[in-house]
Structure formats: structure tokens, C-alpha cells
Queue: 4 jobs
Job 1
Amino acid sequence: MKAFVFTTDALLALTVALLVAMLTIVYVASPVIPRSLYLHQLSADVATVAEAQGAVADLIDGDDTALRTIFRSMPPSVCMQARLIDDMGNETIITEASCTTYQRELQSLWLPYHHNGENYLIRWEGWYR
């Protein structure tokens, strides 16, 4: 009976030790993405999605509904803004409704856009609430 208890106790201790070792390896090996890099990548992703879904073309044509829908799908801690600048320097600014001012870190991404024979510049901005 002592051998059975000793074996069971040893197997339990070994299982716990292996679990702790595996969790330590997973935790140490997992990459940590800096907040600024995450925010920059999120801005780039929004720009890609907006262009792919036609939201940029719609914005140029005066309809910001699709772009606002994309902005509403962002994580709650992130605010997004798009500044559309035409050849004459006129700006159209679309900001997520609940975001009015920059609170923390700001990341921006400038991209050119060509639509109906005209050139535009779009500044995608993202920041944390």
C-alpha cells in the first residue's frame, strides 16, 4: 500500500512540475507587441479594409457610412480618424463619434489614393482613449 501511495504522489508531483515548466516556456516565448506597433498595424489594417470594401471611394463621393461602420468595429480602447485631402488641399475629416480629442499615443499613416482621375491623400490616425 505504501508503494501505491508513493507512486501516486510522485506522479502527481511530476504532473504539476511539468505543467509549471510548460506554462513558463509558453509565457517566456510569447511575443510582446509594443502598444505603438499594435496601433500602427491597426491603422494600416483599417486602411486596407476600407480600400478593399470601397469605403474610401464612397468617402470621396460624399458617403461616409461604410467608413463609420469600420470605425465602430474597432476595439473599445482605440479611436480612429481619416483625413481625406484632395488636390486643392480641401480636407474631409471623419472621426469615430465617441472620439473627439487625442488622449494618449497617436499613430498615423499617410497613403495616396487615385479615384476617377484625381489624386487624394488619406491620413489614417489611431489613438488610445
Job 2
Amino acid sequence: MRFNINDNGAIVGTATYTQSGSNTNIANGPHAVMLLPLQLRLLNGSTADFDGSIPTNVIASPENPQHDNDVAGAGGVSTLGVLPMGQGRPTFPNNAYTVQTLVAAQAPAQMSALQYQWKRFLTRRSWYIQSTNSGASWHVTQRSNRGTTTPADDTGSSDYYNTTPSSTKHEFYFQDTSAMAYGNYANDTNGYLPVGSYILEEKAFTYQVNLSFDGTNWTSGASLPVQQTITVKIQASGTNAVSSWVGYPNLQGGNVFTNGMINPVVTPSAVQAIVGSTNFTIDPSANTP
């Protein structure tokens, strides 16, 4: 059978397609290219799903069969978007600055034989912006990094995503509670950061859906780049994120998770925008590796 190109489609694999009566046979093959409208969307509490609705909570079951796992994984919170400081990561109680999101994939209804596989890839860096000279200047050093040479496979547990399109909306979902955690690194807690210092973290995600006809041979399908910028200000010498951190410039503005592709490299303009001054230095190794 000959497949037509769909302007909204993505190449999801190669196949031969034959049909005899009510039976459909699909097999991997090198000579046919199939283009189907497989699409991804970020749902962050203020963005629209494919039907135009704007979900503000984790999609409920039966549309999203992983709902209960998703909510439990966020510490019992179902809200999409930036969560109150300390919430969203039960493995870091009172110590995480979290945004809860879903990535929705809408599958072609006419191709029930396709199988789907989620992948999430991550590149990130974070930096200390240390207040010095009683707040008259700042010094920037690297706090952490991951996937800076090759993006890391950060797919995580299948408890928090599903791969079977729903019967109603033909969607399936990947839940994320991306956060910055207090105390993960020594200088978070050892007095290195006086009040008035900051921590900046930038993450570049790629959410990808792979496709297969046999569950063994997978082809890269649609992908969605997402960027996250987290900025906290040290407000007190506390013992956890709730007592020590405040989102900067505010709770919502300090944890931004949107469509796009960021390059996690600290720049003078980014530091100036945070501290409101040009009186700072950036360590030569701040962006390496």
C-alpha cells in the first residue's frame, strides 16, 4: 500500500503494509517510508493539550492509567506547574524546588499495530553565585553537571509513563517532577553560600518517542525539546530548602519549564540579570566539562 505524506507528520519508521480482508500484516522493510502524525506537547499547567483544554492537574485515569503512580511520585500532589518550595519529591522532603509536568504524545488512531517507547535525554549544569564582600560582589563557580559531553539517558522508571494510546484521545503520557534539591552537594550546606547568594541551574531535555512494529527493532520518532531554568536566592542559613531558599525573582519565576532548547552555559548577561550588578567574576571552569 502507498502512504501519503502528512504535513503534520513525523517519520516513524520503515515498513511494508499488506491487507487481506480484515487482516493487516505489517513488517519491517527497507523500501517503504511511512509518515504519520505522531505529535508531542508539553503540559505544564498553562499550556494546552491537543483538544485545546489546559490541564492544571495530572490527567486522571482511565485516560492516564499511571495517574496514581504519578501523584504518589510527586508526594501526593497532582497540581501541574511549579510546586511550593519543598514539595513534589518525597525522596527529598522539604528539600526540593519542583515543577510537575506531563508530556503528551498523540498517536495515529489508524495504526493500532504500532508500539511506542519513551526516552528522555538530559544535559544540565548548575552554578553557585556566591555573595562576597558583604554583598558588594559575587563569584560564580560550577555546582554540578550531567550529560554535558553526550546527553544522558534520563528516562527513569516506567511507573511514571505509559506507552499505550488511550481509546478516547489516543494519547499517552510521560510525567516529570524535575527539581533542584537542597543538600546534594557540600557547598549547599557548609556555609559557602552566605545570605544573598544564589544558585542557578539550567537543564536541556529532549523527550522522544520511539516506534516499533515488533517490539525489538525501534526507530526514532517524534521528539520535543524542553528547557528549564531554576534560580534560588539564599534567604537564611536554614537547614533545608524551605527555610533556606526562595525562588528568584519569585516562586513561579524561579522555576521555568517551557518548550525550547537551552545551552546550559552560564554567561555574564545571565549573572548580571540575577545579581543586578556587573561586579562579579566567573570561574574559568564554570562551564567545563
Job 3
Amino acid sequence: MSRASNQRTMPHRTRKGEARDLLLYILAGVGAVCTVTVIAVFTKVQFDPLFKWLGFGIVTALVFGDTIRANRRHWKSRRFWWLLAVFFAVQCAIGIPVLWAATKVPAIYWGAILPLNYGVLAGYLALLLHSRRA
């Protein structure tokens, strides 16, 4: 095995590393719940507008974050980052006006939009990232 191919392999995760990651996820979740609780108790924020934008942000972060994580081998490819940027721009160009016009977006809609968004992005990348250039 050459040195270059050896550097691209993912290091083996240890139990200590997994426990640390789990603790960080728990702390991030607790922090998010505490933040929302403080906003709910100590401010007069209207939650319908807040949650529609929060939902859009969370769905976008989950879809793009997982896609970037899952495509580690393409990180050095400019084409990969360009395709992600184009998809992000299209998502924002569609999502922002729709949310701006909507008065309320129920949480169940985000549950349907998340896998749809992820599937469209995965298909888009599979089609365009792996297509041969003419």
C-alpha cells in the first residue's frame, strides 16, 4: 500500500473517542433545549415565525452537514464544493420566498422535507459528480 493511499483512510475510532463524541452531542442538545427554554420564558418572541426559520436552518444544516461528512473523499474536489454551493443557492432561492409567504409551517412538514431534501441532494451529486465530462 502506498503512502498516499494510506493517508486517505479514516483512523479507527476508539471507545474513548466515541464516548467523547456522544458527550458532545448530549451537551449540544442540552444547550439547544436550554436556549429555546430561555427564549420561551424570558422573551415575547412569536414562535410560529421563529420555528419556520429554525426548521429551515436545521434541515439545511442536517442535509448539508451529513452530505459533507459522507463525501469525505471528494473534499479536495472543486467540483464537489461547486455543486454543493449551487444546490445551496437553489435551496435558498426556493425555500426563503416560500417561508416568507407562509404564516406557519407545522413540524410534521419538516419531517417530510428532510428526507426529500436529502434524497434530491444525493441524487443530484450522484448524477453530476460522477458524470463524465464531455
Job 4
Amino acid sequence: MTDLDHLFSPVTIGTMEVKNRLLMSAMSINFGVDDKGYVTDQLTDYFLERARGGVGMMLVGGGAVHPGGQELPDLPAMWDDGCVESLKTMVEQVKPYDVKFGVQLMHGGRQSYLPNKVAPSAIPAPAVVSGEVRALETSEIEELVDCFGDSAARCREAGFDFIELHAAHGYLINQFMSPNANRREDPYGGSFDNRIRFLLEIIDNIQKKAGPDFPVGIRINGNDYIDNGWEVADARRAAPILEKKGAAYLHVSAGVYGSTELTIPSMYVKHGCFVHLAEAVKQEVSLPVVTVGRIKDPRLADTIIKENRADIVAMGRALLADPYLPQKAREGKFSEIRPCMGCCLGCIDAVLSKEPGSCVANPDVGREFKLKQMENPEKKSTILVAGAGPAGLAAARMFAVTGHRVVVCEKEKAPGGLLALAARTPGRQELNDILDFFRSQAEQNGVMIHYNTELSGDLIHRTAPDRIVVATGSMPEMPVITGLFQTEMELAANVDILNHTIEAGKRVIVLGGGITGLVTADYLAEQGRKVVVLNRKKRFAEEMSSNDRYYLRERLKKNGVTLYKKVAIQKITKNGAIFKYGSDRETVELNTFDTIVISEKMTSIQAVKKLSGTTGATFHFIGDAKDPRHLMYCISEAEEIARDTR
């Protein structure tokens, strides 16, 4: 057991008694509904897994109250009476787990992925989504107020314990509240009281239709972080008004599409980044206040509550990565919590691309309904894994969990591979968290890891494996460029820089504008070096999520890194390069540089293929050893190969 007494103490919210102070925040996961928007077994089993994990409250995300306000195409339709039966089924299955279950109701407004967008004023969203926006007529506003009330009544009919109104993140209610989006000159615009009128009318309508005893939480922004936006002073002013209106709790978040601080911050942002906003709002009210923002460590969550900075802590991505985080935290098993890395790739980036949500750290997200039908293999085998990078460790862990005997060999003296090198770059240390998780889990499940040991015929003979999993990773590939091997500059690969094999000079050219090139450039610039990046592609770091890339680009800008894209290199000179770039094909000549770092294409390390003819064991190539790709594919492929019973 653990001493997280504050986090695991009960709390009263309206008419609800909640067993602990962890709320799984609403996430638009973009799966689990049919073509009518009715929930399916996929969404039910996704929530069941998190209910079993011990969270106190959880929310269905993206419940649209009107077909013209869908944030994304594959989210629950709350505007239709026909949705109630499938919701009832989901609620009935969740109820036995003593979790308070709710729905977040919303209208996307100008941030909807629809061709015909509406908003308080005809002002397009500042980022992410594009397209014309039409200003709502007064009669349409009144209709939408009714839509929120009707949807809340459907939620109560379906058996949900509460609802949350999404009045944050730049969606429709927030648009009415923010001067940035609301230029109306009628009773719904202008003054502060007019701008919050829409929200107050919605609350009144819900209380009329769903009952005054049905808890209604409100998610508001503590700060829009955009010019002429809603600010913390506005949130503090609104809080007591919402309390008097009967709000059950206030959930304080931040950001809109196009804000300087992103709603879903990446690993570059400190943990608990929005707690100060909740703390400010809490000073104005006596009702429970929820905080959110890069909180993944339950010990931090407990401290926040202990220090009276908030009453409840919301976690979203942390519960995607590990549904059983609450249970493990309560038992003090912190090393067993599968960590969110803050990469934003499987969750927000996939969803904004209108793909089903997922998680780099946890490939099971969205597949819970399929995995419950899978059984562990009856036959137990001996598995030899070559490579202790993320793919090798993930495979070793999963094989061991399913009962196989597993041996890992790693040619280096420590685990991690290229991911461990990437974790040395500024702001990306959390990549080590997933490595630590897989390594410790593998060892706890009896996996033997032999360092300074390469895969060899002798090792195969001694181990006698049934299957050999090759996860030997990849290495930088040297390009063919005129003058590259005649230059007087120090020639290095990105791995040489990050593992300190080669020390870069004071003026560095980085060839490659993908994620490895940019984080290497950041690493060098942080040390005070002058860095220029030459990217032969059209875009920078396409393999990163847009949220993660935003913070990295801001760092590069701050550190004075010069970026060129659409580069055509004519020649590498003795102390620089001559190239054309951009659409205008302007010629640039760089001089007085002392180091050139290659960080472009990677090539798989498959030298062990020659051993396949010396054994009857089945070989499997996974991760970068199969084809250099993103971490998401490495981990999912590793776990899938371990579940394969063939």
C-alpha cells in the first residue's frame, strides 16, 4: 500500500460521492461508434478497462449536441434519441466498478471538422481547421441552448451519473466567452455578462430538462493563451457566478487552436503546467475544482491536493498509457505504471488527422474489445531477443508475461538503443521512462538480459530458442553528395554526436530535417554552437506530432538555429556547402563551418540474417531492424509478435 491519502480520499461532487480524486478527462478518441454515432462494444470495452483500473470518475469525450457541431466524425451523437439504448448498455456494464461515469457535451463551433461551420461571429479558427464560418442567428443560439438541455436529459435517461459542459479549448461555448472569437453586438456579445450568457442559459436549460439534482461540471479555460482571449481574471470572475448557478465542479484547463500554450502540451512542457490556473480559480469558490495539464505521476497529483491547489486531478493521456495507473499507485507499484511520454502522436495527432486515437506507449488502446477474446498460448517456447532497444524490450516483456522463457542479448553495455540517445537531447528525457518500464518489467518477469553480447551461433546453440526476435535497430546511412568525403570539416553521424564519440566544433551544419536532425540541432545549439539545418524535404520533422514539433521549433528559434527546407545541395566545400533552397531556388553558400553532421536516412541492421541457416528457430525482424520507422510501430509490432501464437 501507499500513502497517497489525499489522492485516494473520497470527495463529494453535487449529489455524488466519489471514491477518489482521479478523473479521467474527456478525450475525443474518434472510435467506437457506428455510422449513426451510436456507441459500440469497442468504446464500451475501452471504458471498461479504465473502470477496472480504479479511477474515481471518467468522461466520454466529444459528445456532440448537434450534427452541425461535431468536432470529429467518429464521436458519440448525443443529439439523437436513438443513441440512448447503446449508451444504457455501456453504462450498465461500467456500473459494477464503482466509478462515476459521465459525458462531456460540446459543440465544436468554428473548430469543427465540417464544411459548414457556425460560431458567434464569422471569424475562422486561428489554426488547425480551415474553412468559412457563418455567424449564428439569435434563433439558432436559442435552438442550441435547447440541444444542450435535450442531450443532458438523454445522458440522465441512459444512466450516466453526471455531465460536463465543454466551455474551454476554443469550442463553441468558449468562443462566445472569448473576445477573440465573439464580436457580436447583441445580448450575446460585447460585455462580460453578455459573453457568458450562452453558457448560463445552457445550465438553466439542463437543470430544467435533466433536473436540478443532476450534477453538471463545467470545463473552462483559465487562460486562452491567445491575443484578446479569455484570461485568468475572466475565469476568476466567472467562477462564483457558475457556482451560484449550480455547477457541481469547475474543471480548469487552457488553450485553444492556435494558442501559444497548447491544450495538449508535449514532453517539452513541465508537469502540472496548468495547476496555477486551477489554484487561482479555487480561491474564488467553495465547490470542487479540477486541475489538469501534464500530470502523469500520482505522487504529484497527491501533492497538488495536499497543498490545496485543487480538489481533483484529471488525467487523460496517462490513463490511455496505463488504465491501471490508479490501482498500481494505490498499491505503491509505481515502477509498474506504463508511462505516457508526452509525444502526442497516437492520441491528439492521430485524432486531428481524423484517425482513431491510440497510444505510442500502449498499443492496446482501441483494441480492448478484441484482446479480451485472445488467450495465452498453451505451448511455452524459448525466445531469444537480439537487441535491448524499445522494440526488443517490449517484445521480451510481452513474451515473458505470456509465460515464455526469454533471453535478451544486447551488444552495448546498456539498454535503450537509439531511443536512449534521443533521450539525451533537451526536453526529451521522458523517453527514458518507457525504456525503464520495459526493462524493469522484463526483469521482473524473469527475462535474462546479457549486455556486451551479440547474437551469435554459439549463443543460439546454448540457448536453443524456438523463435529468435531480431530487434537490432538501425544506423545512419551516409548520403552520396559531391565533396562530402573531401571536406575538411569534421564528418559525423548524429549518433556520434549524441553518444559523445565525436565532439562537434563551434559552427555546425546538420544535414537532415527530420526528428533526429532537429533534436540533434537542438542538442548542439543548447551548448552554444552556431547551427544550420539543411532539409532536403518539403517539411520539417513530419514524423513528429504537430504539438511536439511546435515546442521543438520554438526551442530552435530561441536558440538561433537557421533552418532551410527544399534544399538541393550542389556541393559540400572544404568548410561549408553550396545549395539552392525553397520554391524560389535561391543559392546560398555557407563558409567557416567546422563540423557537418549527417542525420537523414537510417538503414536497418540485419547482419544476423546470415545466422538463419544455422538453426531451426523461426526468425522475426521487428522495429527498425525490419524497417526504420517511428517508435509507435516498434512497440506495437513487438507486442503483436509476442501475442502471435502461431
